[in-house]
Amino acid sequence: MVGMSGQSDDGNNGGGGARVHRDTTQVDMPMAPPRPAGPPAPPPRPAPRPAPGSVTGPVPLPADGRSDASPLVRTVERHLDEILAAVPQPDAIELAVLDAQGLLCAEDVVSQRALPAFDQAALDGYAARAEDVAPASVREPVALSVVGESVAGMAAPSSIGPGLALKVAAGAMLPAGADVVVPAVWTDQGAVQVAVQAGPPAGSYVRRAGDDVAPGDSAVQVGTPIGPAQISLLAAVGRERVLVRPRPRVVVLSAGTELVDVAATPAPGQAVDVNSYALAAAARDAGADAYRSGILPADRRRMGEVLESQLLRSDLVLVSGTFASGGFDVVQEALAELGPMRFRQVAMHPGPAQGFGRLGRDQVPVICVPGEPVAALVSFEVFVRPAIRLMLGKRQLFRRTVQAIAGQELLSPLGYRQYLHGTVMRHPDGGYVVEPVGEATDALLARMARANCLIVIDEDVTEVAAGGLVTVMPLLLGG
User: Fold this and answer.
1) Of 53, 206, 232, 288, which residue is least crowded by CB atoms under 10 Å?
2) CA distances from 369 to 92, 310, 363, 387, 409 (A)
3) From residue 462, how far is each of 42, 147, 352 by CA, in Å?
4) What is the mean pLDDT, run by run of 10 residues, along the chain of 479 residues?
5) What pLDDT shows up at residue 40?
6) Is-same-fold flag (93-108+218-245; 120-207)?
7) Which residues face 295 on adjacent strands?
8) Rounded Cα distance, 136 and 415, in Å
9) Within 13 Å and on the Cβ side, how many CA atoms surround 209?
10) Beta bridge mates, 456
């Protein structure tokens, strides 16, 4: 899923058409080189069955491991497809070119000007005729009379004839009759007469009018990511404003009566609201304009008012919380009053409890993720980040992945796609090696903060032996 390339990851999403299930762990980077043959790995052990009443992870699925075998549990791909099929793409807006940086161009910008606007010197030297300087060499330099000087910004027309040269600066207007610029370092840099020691062919070090962009040419095309080079070109063709795909407005809310703001000292049984900060930061990193609205009020009426008001200002609403299964809690009831909201178990760990709906007058997408901070950020990577990139018009929705060698044995629950935080690094022999971060005694937030990747283990795999290959999703900032 992580963009490990630059602008090649961006562009139009490719339009409409039927959506197909996508593999969010698809390998789209070269695999690590083959490892030397070793003893065969032992066959995978069946997943241990927890004792009754001791289940702390995801509920085991049927023995075939297919989440579709249970009507109450859906695959990661099916839940992701439902979200991507429903998120809107905001209408294009016009921005000043500097404010458009990082966005996708939404129009074909056609130049009304020629770039360059006139024939000009590409570097400091002497404008001359190629046939005059062709025989020049260090042993037998060609002498030319210098008839003047042209500097950048000088608009007065000039011309030269046989045996003449004009001293020019980079960007200066080229005199009529000249078809080459001899670099100053190839001459004795004379002021009245110049000795040319090498003769470049005709057209060398000359920029002709319209060589870069001619009137009527497309300067910046639809779907082009606007970076410093595009801003330079837009300014050169005289565009102060440009039509772009805007950043989606994402509002982040946290639900839970146990939550207190970061400035408060939590009492026993209370927890600091870290999710609204973490998810807002993740949304900004994905390219959205994210607004942290904070903790939802506990009062039922006020909660509904806050949710409804946020739907009016948002392109997407993100809510984290611990939502009841098998029945409505107060947050689910408040959301249900604003439109159809579906909560489901998704075959992933951590964070199998997921919700999605389109609510309010404008059918704004609302994504609900688990309240546990690690599960919330994993859910963001899997479901929310691709939705934001789709709304931005990006072509590469998912982070790119690599294949890495597992540094130690990895276990995973059967039937669930496991996402483990880890550290991935280059192996001295080539390829990548990855290890999960920390020990079981580490605090989860501290462990997550040290990670630079997610290790992704598919639903039908319960064990990856040390030295085996595993899919890794590098978590590059802004990627």
Assistant:
1) 53
2) 29, 17, 19, 14, 29
3) 13, 83, 17
4) 40 39 38 40 39 39 43 87 92 94 94 92 95 94 93 79 94 93 95 94 94 92 94 94 95 94 92 95 95 92 94 95 74 92 93 94 95 94 96 92 94 93 89 84 78 94 94 84
5) 40
6) no
7) 254
8) 78
9) 10
10) 419, 471
Q: Is the pTM of this model over 0.85?
A: no
* CATH class of the region 93-108+218-245: alpha beta
Query: Rounded distance, CA 275 to CA 380, Å?
Result: 11
pLDDT of residue 63: 41
What secondary structure letter does DSSP report for 168? E
**What Å distances lie between residue 92 and 218, 222, 248, 388, 444, CA to CA?**
19, 11, 11, 15, 41
Cβ neighbors of 358 (< 8 A, separation 6 or more) are: 86, 339, 340, 364, 365, 366
- As beta bridge partners, residue 251 has 291, 317
Domain ranges in the chain are 61-90+247-392, 93-108+218-245, 120-207
Q: What is the pLDDT of residue 319?
A: 97
| Single-letter code of the amino acid located at 355 | G
Do 100 and 232 contact (CB within 8 A), yes or no?
no
Q: How far apart are CA 117 and CA 391, in angstroms?
A: 38
> Which helix H or strand E contains 280, and what residues bound it?
helix 275-285
Give the pLDDT confidence score for residue 21 in this predicted structure. Answer: 33
Residue 203: helix, strand or coil by DSSP? Answer: coil
Quote the tokens at residue 237: 């063709």
Dist. CA 420–CA 471, nearest whole Å: 11
The pLDDT, as a whole number, for residue 56 is 36
Which tokens sit at 84? 């991507």
What is the pLDDT at residue 427?
84
Architecture of the domain spanning 120-207: Beta Complex (2.170)
What tokens were used for 479?
Answer: 């990627």
